[in-house]
Design brief:
Helix content is 60%, strand content 5%. By secondary structure, the chain is mainly alpha-helical. Strand 7 and strand 8 form a beta hairpin. The longest helix has 30 residues. The chain is globular and about 85 Å long. InterPro entries: Acyl_transf_3_dom, Acyltransferase_3, SGNH. Keywords: Acyltransferase, Membrane, Transferase, Transmembrane, Transmembrane helix.
Length: 629
C-alpha cells in the first residue's frame, strides 16, 4: 500500500468523529456520548502516521526533518490562528481570572502540554469545562507528544524482523490498555488526559498500518467488517452515560469500530462515493471544525448561557462552520501549498504574537480595568476560597478520603441541641449558615464530596462506606436532629435510591433522632458571578437560568418523605425561587453561589435562615423530644 493512497472512508470517519464531538458539546441528541469521536481520531492518527513512517523507512527515504515539517504544516497554522483569535476573544469577553486562565492555556498549547495542564486542574471544585476556551486542545497535546516520541520508537522497532516488530507494537498496545483500565478506576483524570493511558489507541492504529491483521480478500467480508464497524461507532455515540468510567474498557467499542472500518476498506462504487461526498467534505474540514467549535460555544456560554433552543444550536453551528471554512481555505490550505520557509516564518510570527499576548494578559492580571468596581468585586467570587467555609479535608472530605479521616471535632457533642449535618458538598455549603442561624445548637458535620446520602449505582466504595456509617453514628451519637442534604438529581428517583434513602431515615428515627431532609438547592447554567456580570455588561437577562429539572426532583422527594414519621422536608427551591427565577444575590450584594450552585458564606446564611424558619423541627428552640429508651 502506498503511503499516499487516498482513503475516502477515512475522511468519512473523520467527519463522523468531529460531528459526534460537536453534537455532544452542543447538546444535540442523540449524541450523549459523542466524546468517543476523540478516540476515533486517535486510532486514525496512529494508522496514518505509522503508514507514512513505515512506508518511508522501507523505501529508505524517511527523514525526521521532513516528518516534523509535514506535521507542523498540518497542525500548527490553523491551531495558531485559532489561538490568537481565542486570546483576543478572552480579553474582551471573559472575566479577569478567566482571561488569565485562557492565557495559561495558550502557553500550554504552545508548549504541546495542554493535556498535562488540564489534567492538573481536575478536581471537584475546579472551574467548569465550559469556562476554559482551549480545553479541547488536550487531544492535540496527546497527539503532539505521540509525534515526538513515536518516530524515535519506530527506528528501533521497524529495524526488527517482522515478528518481533509486531510483538513490540502489541506489547505497547496491551500495556497501555491495561494501564488505561486501571487508571480509569483509580485516577480517571490521568487516564483521560495523559498519553500513557491513550497510547494503546494510537498503537492500535499503528498495528493496522503494518498489516498486523491479515487483509480481507473477499469483498463481502470487507463490506461486512466495515458495516459492523460503522454500527459499533453509531451505537457508541449514545451508549455511555456520564457515570460510565471512561476511557477504560468502554473505549474499546469505538476503537474496534474504527479499526473495523479501516481494516475492511471495501471498494467504493461511484454511487457510494457520490452519496458520501458531503461526509468526505466534512472530513476534509474536520480539523478546523474541531479547532473552532469549542471556543465558539465557550464564549457564547460566557455571554448568553448554554445553548438550549434549536435556534441557539443552529446559530452556534453556523458560526463554527463559518470560522472553520475560513480557517481551512485561508490558513490550512495556503500553509500546505506555500514554500516551507514562508510557512515557517509565518508560524514563527504567529506563535510569537500568541506568546506575547498570553504573557501580557498574565502580567496585567487579565485587564481588570475593563470592569467597574462592582463587577470586579463580583468577579472576585470566581476564585472564591471555600475551603475554610466548608471545612475542606476535615469535616468535608475529598472523594479520595474515607470516613475515618473525619476529625474528632467534627462529631463532638455539646450541651445544647445536637444537630448532625450529613451529605455531600450541598450539605457542606450549609455549615456556615447553620452556625449563624442556630448559635445555641451544637453542629456536628459529616460530609463528603460526590456522596449523596443514599446508595446509587456507580458511586465510589468510599462513599458507600461513608453512608453505611450513618445508622451506627445515629445510634452512638444520638443527635437530636439529623439533617440530610445533597446534590439531589434524577438519580434520587431511581428505585434503589428511594429504598436506600427511606431505609436510612428509618434507621435514624428508630435510633431516636428526628430527620430534616433539605431538597435540592438552585443550580444555574453557569457560574452565578459570570451570569450576574454578563447581565450588567451585555444586557443579558438574569431570569430563567436555573436548571429546571431540579423542580421535578424536589416534588418527588417531597412526596416520598411526606408521610414518613418524625421527618420534615424543606424545599429550598420554594424558599429561594419563584418558578425558574431565583434569588441571585444577598442583601449585601454577594452572589448566592460562587459557582453554578454552591453557596457563598452569605448565600449559606440566607438559605439556612429560611430553612430554619420553614422547618418545625429546626425552628423549635428547645431540644426536640427523643424517643423513650
Amino acid at each position: 500500500m502506498s503511503s499516499t493512497d487516498y482513503r475516502p472512508d477515512i475522511d468519512c470517519l473523520r467527519a463522523f468523529a468531529v460531528m459526534s464531538v460537536i453534537a455532544f458539546h452542543y447538546d444535540v441528541s442523540p449524541f450523549r456520548s459523542g466524546y468517543i469521536g476523540v478516540d476515533v481520531f486517535f486510532v486514525i492518527s496512529g494508522f496514518l502516521i505509522t503508514r507514512i513512517i513505515h512506508a518511508e523507512m522501507l523505501a529508505g527515504t524517511f527523514s525526521f526533518a521532513a516528518f516534523y515539517r509535514r506535521r507542523a504544516r498540518r497542525i500548527l497554522p490553523a491551531a495558531f490562528a485559532m489561538l490568537c483569535a481565542t486570546l483576543l476573544g478572552a480579553s474582551v469577553i471573559l472575566l479577569p481570572q478567566e482571561t488569565v486562565s485562557a492565557a495559561q492555556q495558550a502557553l500550554a498549547v504552545l508548549t504541546f502540554s495542554s493535556n498535562i495542564l488540564f489534567w492538573s486542574q481536575q478536581g471537584y471544585f475546579d472551574a467548569a469545562a465550559i469556562t476554559k476556551p482551549l480545553l479541547h486542545t488536550w487531544s492535540l497535546g496527546v497527539e503532539e507528544q505521540y509525534y515526538v516520541l513515536f518516530p524515535v520508537l519506530t527506528l528501533a522497532v521497524f529495524a526488527l524482523r517482522r515478528s518481533l516488530m509486531l510483538a513490540s507494537l502489541v506489547a505497547v498496545c496491551a500495556a497501555s490498555f491495561l494501564l488505561c483500565v486501571i487508571q480509569t478506576r483509580i485516577q480517571p483524570a490521568a487516564a483521560f488526559y495523559l498519553l500513557p493511558a491513550r497510547a494503546w489507541q494510537l498503537a492500535f492504529g499503528a498495528l493496522l498500518a503494518v498489516d498486523a491483521f491479515p487483509p480481507l480478500r473477499n469483498q463481502w467480508l470487507r463490506i461486512a467488517a466495515a458495516t459492523l464497524g460503522w454500527i459499533a461507532l453509531g451505537v457508541s455515540t449514545n451508549l455511555f452515560s456520564p457515570r460510565t468510567p471512561y476511557p477504560g474498557v468502554a473505549a474499546l467499542m469505538p476503537c474496534l469500530g474504527t479499526a473495523a472500518v479501516i481494516w475492511g476498506r471495501p471498494a467504493l462504487s461511484r454511487t457510494v462515493l457520490t452519496i458520501t461526498r458531503p461526509m468526505i467534505a466534512i472530513g476534509l474540514w474536520s480539523y478546523s471544525l474541531y479547532l473552532w467549535h469549542w471556543p465558539v460555544v465557550s464564549f457564547a456560554t460566557a455571554v448568553w448561557g448554554p445553548p438550549i433552543s434549536v435556534m441557539d444550536k443552529l446559530a452556534l453551528l453556523g458560526a463554527c462552520t463559518t470560522l472553520a471554512l475560513a480557517s481551512f481555505y485561508l490558513v490550512e490550505q495556503p500553509a500546505r501549498r506555500a514554500a516551507w520557509p514562508v510557512t515557517a516564518r509565518t508560524l514563527a510570527a504567529t506563535g510569537a504574537v500568541a506568546l506575547s499576548a498570553a504573557a501580557i494578559m498574565i502580567w496585567s492580571s487579565g485587564f481588570p480595568d475593563r470592569f467597574s468596581p462592582q463587577e470586579r468585586a463580583m468577579a472576585d467570587f470566581i476564585g472564591y476560597d471555600h475551603k475554610n467555609v466548608y471545612e475542606n479535608g476535615s469535616c468535608f472530605l475529598n472523594p479520595d478520603q474515607t470516613f475515618d479521616a473525619l476529625q474528632p471535632a467534627c462529631l463532638a457533642k455539646g450541651p445544647g441541641p445536637n444537630i448532625l449535618l450529613w451529605g455531600d458538598s450541598h450539605a457542606a455549603h450549609l455549615i456556615h449558615g447553620f452556625r449563624r442561624a442556630l448559635p445555641q445548637a451544637t453542629l456536628m458535620r459529616a460530609t463528603m464530596a460526590q456522596c449523596t446520602p443514599y446508595d446509587e449505582p456507580g458511586q465510589s466504595a468510599a462513599c458507600t462506606e461513608f453512608n453505611g456509617r450513618l445508622p451506627g453514628l445515629a445510634r452512638d451519637l444520638a443527635p437530636d436532629i439529623v439533617v440530610l442534604s445533597g446534590n439531589w438529581t434524577r438519580t434520587a428517583m431511581a428505585p434503589v435510591a428511594q429504598a436506600s434513602l427511606l431505609a436510612t431515615i428509618e434507621a435514624i428515627t428508630e435510633a431516636g433522632s428526628r430527620v430534616v431532609v433539605i431538597g435540592p438547592s438552585p443550580q444555574f447554567d453557569r457560574p452565578l458571578p459570570d451570569l450576574l456580570i454578563a447581565t450588567s455588561r451585555f444586557g443579558v437577562t438574569s431570569e430563567g437560568h436555573m436548571l429546571t429539572f431540579f423542580a421535578e426532583v424536589d416534588a418527588f422527594l417531597r412526596a416520598l418523605v411526606k408521610d414518613v414519621p418524625r421527618t420534615d422536608y424543606v424545599s429550598l427551591l420554594t424558599l429561594l425561587c419563584t418558578g425558574s427565577d431565583c434569588v441571585l444575590q444577598t442583601s449585601d450584594g454577594a452572589p448566592l453561589a460562587w459557582d453554578d450552585g454552591h453557596f457563598t458564606a452569605q448565600g449559606s446564611e440566607l438559605a439556612v435562615s429560611r430553612i430554619v424558619a420553614a422547618s418545625p423541627t429546626l425552628s423549635t428552640p428547645a431540644t426536640p423530644p427523643r424517643k423513650s429508651e
